[in-house]
């Protein structure tokens, strides 16, 4: 009888522990971001046609010429990308070179977007079927990768860049040798 | 009043829907099946076990998100090019981690998934043995239970 009683109390304890764990997990903010597993690895080879007239497209070779860069994944149809635009401009003013990858976008839409929200990019490639985005392990727009001069991804920023993120991104860029 | 209502009705006619989706057509193989039924079956089976990244409780086979369509295009074109489903899954996992796959592999992070059921079974076996063994023992000595 005594052993049974101890066993039952152990069961109650286990159940309490399990419910405690559920309660704790339910109170945690849900992390909806899927981080890229490509951080620390070289950018896979790719070649994208220009996303707008008058500005060059983007290839992986452009990202391995010795200069660290920001690779910004954006789209004209993406609302947070509009909010991000002034902060990309700040980054550019502080000396960052930024190249863009426009996801599922038409040239005229990209041109209209840049005309309204500014153009901080030196090159913009058009990724019509998210192929390069998938190969980088990016799961949405906007996202920004810090790529060192050898073409290795050193940092991923998920979501729109806000004013408070600018110093960290600049620091990562400097660490990469800018 | 009537004029205002008319203007409102006209405004609603010409209003464009909120800009939240892209305007490009889906990738070629997002909704189109492969010609070879065997390859299509392989692709479909794989698509049901890859997680949509935009809509995280659906598989890419279930989701209409443009990105899920682009992932289906990747799966179908790679199958058509002769890659095996497990190669494609590995390619996805290399980019997005275990998260993207609905078929967990035994690994440093996932072993409790596999160990827990075994532990439960062992526990059940242990308890059952104790009970059955005791009942049998009691039957032999002829004592009444409890």
TrEMBL record, chain A:
Its main location: other. It is found in: Cell envelope. InterPro entries: Redoxin (IPR013740), Thioredoxin-like_sf (IPR036249), Thioredoxin_CS (IPR017937), Thioredoxin_domain (IPR013766), Thioredoxin_ResA/DsbE_sf (IPR050553). Residues 37-175 form the Thioredoxin domain. Gene3D superfamilies: Glutaredoxin. Keywords: Cytochrome c-type biogenesis, Disulfide bond, Redox-active center. This is Redoxin family protein. It comes from Alteraurantiacibacter palmitatis. The lineage of its organism: Bacteria, Pseudomonadati, Pseudomonadota, Alphaproteobacteria, Sphingomonadales.
UniProtKB/TrEMBL annotation, chain B:
The chain crosses the membrane at residues 111-128. Residues 28-136 form the CcmH/CycL/Ccl2/NrfF N-terminal domain. Residues 1-20 form the signal peptide. Keywords: Cytochrome c-type biogenesis, Heme, Iron, Membrane, Metal-binding, Signal, Transmembrane, Transmembrane helix. InterPro entries: C-type_cytochrome_biogenesis, CcmH/CycL/Ccl2/NrfF_N, CcmH/CycL/NrfF/Ccl2_sf. Gene3D superfamilies: Cytochrome C biogenesis protein. Belongs to the CcmH/CycL/Ccl2/NrfF family. Possible subunit of a heme lyase. This is Cytochrome c-type biogenesis protein. It comes from Alteraurantiacibacter palmitatis.
């Amino acid at each position: 009888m005594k052993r049974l009683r101890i066993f039952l109390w152990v069961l109650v304890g286990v159940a309490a522990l399990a419910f405690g764990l559920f309660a704790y997990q339910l109170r945690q903010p849900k992390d909806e971001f899927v981080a890229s597993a490509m951080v620390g690895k070289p950018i896979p080879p790719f070649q994208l046609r220009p996303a707008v007239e008058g500005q060059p497209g983007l290839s992986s070779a452009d990202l391995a010429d010795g200069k660290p860069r920001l690779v910004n994944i954006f789209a004209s149809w993406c609302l947070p990308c509009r909010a991000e635009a002034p902060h990309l401009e700040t980054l550019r003013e502080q000396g960052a070179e930024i190249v863009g990858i426009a996801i599922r976008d038409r040239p005229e839409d990209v041109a209209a977007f840049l005309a309204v929200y500014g153009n901080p990019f030196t090159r913009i490639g058009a990724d019509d079927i998210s192929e390069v985005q998938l190969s980088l392990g990016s799961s949405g727009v906007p996202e920004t990768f810090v790529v060192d001069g050898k073409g290795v991804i050193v940092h991923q920023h998920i979501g729109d860049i806000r004013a408070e993120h600018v110093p960290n991104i600049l620091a990562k860029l400097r660490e990469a040798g800018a | 009043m009537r004029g205002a209502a008319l203007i409102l009705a006209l405004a609603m006619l010409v209003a464009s829907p909120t800009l939240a989706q892209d305007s490009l057509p889906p990738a070629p193989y997002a909704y189109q099946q492969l010609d070879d039924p065997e390859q299509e079956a392989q692709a479909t089976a794989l698509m049901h076990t890859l997680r949509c990244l935009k809509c995280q409780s659906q598989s890419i086979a279930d989701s209409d998100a443009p990105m899920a369509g682009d992932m289906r295009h990747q799966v179908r074109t790679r199958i058509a090019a002769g890659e095996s489903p497990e190669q494609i899954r590995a390619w996805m996992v290399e980019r997005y981690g275990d998260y993207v796959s609905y078929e967990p592999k035994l690994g440093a992070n996932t072993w409790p998934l596999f160990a827990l059921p075994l532990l439960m079974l062992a526990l059940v076996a242990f308890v059952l043995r104790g009970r059955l063994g005791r009942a049998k023992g009691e039957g032999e000595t002829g004592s009444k239970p409890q």
